[in-house]
Amino acid sequence: MADRPRDLAERMARRRRIGGKPGECTGDGYLRETFTLPRAAARARAQAFFARYPKAGYMSAVETWRELPGGDIEFTMRRLPSAD
After folding, report:
1. Structural contact between residues 46 and 62, judged by C-beta atoms closer than 8 angstroms
2. To which H or E segment does residue 73 belong?
């Protein structure tokens, strides 16, 4: 019998740990770092991340982001551990 969407979501959530320790590899092979910064600093940090880990070589991406009540931005960057 097919899984319910909720079952699938729970299984995927168990497999993937967002916001782990910086530099820690998760079950899907990506390294993730979570930051909480003011908007301008968040933009600069994301640009620096992409400059250091280009999308083409590391499959870098802003995985999640949200604006907090105080105006700060919380975001998670992900990348592959190496471009080899």
Report:
1. yes
2. strand 73-79
Q: Which amino acid is at 74?
A: E
Cα–Cα separations (whole angstroms), residue 19 to 1, 42, 44, 60, 82: 33, 16, 20, 15, 19
Query: CA 21 to CA 51: how far, in whole Å?
Result: 22
Beta strands in 1-84 (DSSP E): 31-37, 61-67, 73-79
> pTM for the whole thing?
0.67
- How many Å apart are CA 82 and CA 31, to the nearest integer? 10
Give per-residue pLDDT as tens, 40-53: 999 999 999 999 99
